[in-house]
Amino acid sequence: MEKALDIEQRHAEIARDILQRFVSDKKVLVFGSRATGTAKPFSDLDLAILGEDPLPLPLMAAIREAFAESDLPYKVDIVDWAAVTPRFRDVISSHAREL
Question: Residues in domain Polymerase nucleotidyl transferase (predicted)?
Fold first, then answer.
């Protein structure tokens, strides 16, 4: 059985709501400690937004601002899948889980 993400349901809903507003057509993966089950209470939430083409910088800025202004009790790091190296994609893919 697949292990659950290390994120409270209400926090996952906040994240999904924000992402729905900006990138409703994109799949989003959780990676890092919240995907592997090694998170501490205030560990950040690492998210990768999948897509073939890089997201416009103003859109990435708006997403980051929405997370910064949200009620989430920790920092959210956003990665644009199309803008990272193949090696980093491999690292993400090795333990990523869909949000």
Answer: 15-95
- Active-site annotation, residues: 44, 46
Q: Assign 1 a pLDDT band (cuts: 50, 70, 90).
A: very low
pLDDT digits 0-9 by tens, 15-56: 999 999 999 999 999 999 999 999 998 899 999 999 999 999
What predicted TM-score, i.e. pTM, was given to this entire model? 0.93
State how far the alpha carbon of 14 is from the alpha carbons of 22, 67, 69, 71, 72, in Å.
13, 9, 11, 8, 7
What is the C-alpha end-to-end distance of the chain, expressed in Å?
17
Q: Which residue type does 36 have?
A: T
E strand or H helix at 59, and its extent? helix 57-68
Which amino acid, one-letter code, is at 64? R
C-alpha to C-alpha distance for 41 and 64, rounded to whole angstroms = 21
* Fold type of domain 9-98: Beta Polymerase; domain 2 (3.30.460)
